[in-house]
Amino acid sequence: MPERLQKAEASYSRLMAQQAKSDFDPMEAETLLRARVLDHPIVPLTTKSGRVFFLRRALTDAGMSYRIFRTELSAVIGEEAVGFCEVGRMVNGIAVITKAEVQKSFQRKGIATAVYDLISADMIQAGGLLWPVSPRQMSDAEFKVWWRRSPVLVFYYPHRHRLGLRPRFEFEELFDGATPRRAVRETVRTYFHALVSRFKWVCGLPLD
Fold first, then answer.
1. Are strands 129-131 and 52-59 parallel, antiparallel or unpaired?
2. How far apart are CA 70 and CA 96, in angstroms?
3. Which end of the chain is more exposed for a tag (fewer CB within 10 A), N or C?
4. What one-character DSSP code corresponds to residue 50?
5. Same domain for 49 and 114?
6. Is 2 helix (H, G, I), strand (E, B) or coil?
7. pLDDT digits over 147-182, tens only?
8. Which residue range is the domain that position 195 belongs to?
């Protein structure tokens, strides 16, 4: 199976498991995040092209704040940020990016991807998962970008038509703060594996 699909399947499985968890403790998650931030408030951020920026993270009343700087000194001082990302508090173990921006002159340099990966690692360490933004709030362009990165978005009902797929109402409650019923989880899981198999067949890849 292609690495991209393996990552998508793993991400989807974790998300479904997280949605089904009833023992998630938001206070414990915040404690873990606080310890992570206090230990390393400023961390280097390396893009795929090898360019190094510095990210300063902090806990806020609303969740977490991540700010990107060109130099470590700027990060220490907290001035001249070239971008930022704000993440809300976890709900049912799912954290959502509430606001993000990168200065125009620093766009298309891999900063957003590197920041997303670091935030995702933070949330996993705290026992949760990161979703880029509530799919209901995505523009068509944003949805297509994030779908290429994380194909599990295809299961979110309001956006299925954007990929030329028929509406499936049983997916509506996914990623929307509600815990799906077991039957729904099984239905979605089965459909996902069918989608992967179809993709592999079209690409001439060996089936499992």
1. unpaired
2. 25
3. C
4. S
5. yes
6. coil
7. 666 655 655 545 566 556 555 554 444 444 444 444
8. 1-21+135-201
